[in-house]
Amino acid sequence: MTFDDWGEIARSHFSEEGNMQFLPSMFFASFLLIVSFTLLPVVVAVLLDNFTTATRQEKDLQITKKAALESVDTVGSIDQVVKILLSAPNQVGPINPRP
Question: Is residue 13 part of a domain?
């Protein structure tokens, strides 16, 4: 796909008069068209898709780690409130907010 040294391979199919046979010329023409206009964009699309997937996974991992750290801090502060509420004496009967 890099077109390295394809010229030497093509020159080996030329006759002494400088003409190339029909089948090798059609092969090289079709090969260049297929590779340059079809396969190269497919390879680029696959690489781009893999890159975006890896980036998304990394971002999700960072968000998960941040949420886990924040939830630890939140649970710690709620624990104090829960302890106070659980240590309060139980009241029997309805709670009347008005005196």
Answer: yes
DSSP state of 90: P
Q: Is residue 94 part of a domain?
A: no
8 token code pair:
């030497």
Could you tell me which residues come within 8 angstroms of residue 10 by beta carbon, excluding any fewer than 6 positions away?
20, 24, 28
Residue 48 lies in a domain: yes
pLDDT in tens, 45-84: 999 999 999 999 999 999 998 888 777 655 566 777 777 7
Task: Give residue 1's identity as a one-letter amino acid code.
Answer: M
pTM for the structure as a whole = 0.46
**Residue 20, beta-bridge partner list:** 14
